[in-house]
Structure formats: structure tokens, C-alpha cells
Amino acid sequence: MAFKIIASQCTQCGACEFECPSGAIKFKGEAYVIDPQKCTECKDAFDAQQCASVCPVEMTCVPA
Fold this sequence. Notes:
2 helices, 4Fe4S_Fe_S_CS, iron-sulfur
């Protein structure tokens, strides 16, 4: 399962894009999106999902 970004809550700060170890987060159109084919949920790399850890708005990067 991949993570997703709740677009209506996203402040478009970009923090998640730079922290994603798999390069799954990109700015598309008017919002950041997570490519579910690339998202590894940071398994085997970190104890917590980096997108959710750095996001300033709680519950914006969530499991899909």
C-alpha cells in the first residue's frame, strides 16, 4: 500500500518532496501527489514515513 496526500489540506510547502527517499512525490498541476508505483512507505529505510514526519499539517500524508 502506498501513501497519498490529501490535496485540500496540503500547504504546498514542498517538504515532503525533498524528504521522500524513493522520489515518489512530485508537484503536478496545483498539488503534490505520490506515485503509488514508487512509494515504498519508507520500509527498510526509516522507522516512520518521511512525508508524514515532515508535513506541517497533521494527517495530510496518509495511507492510501
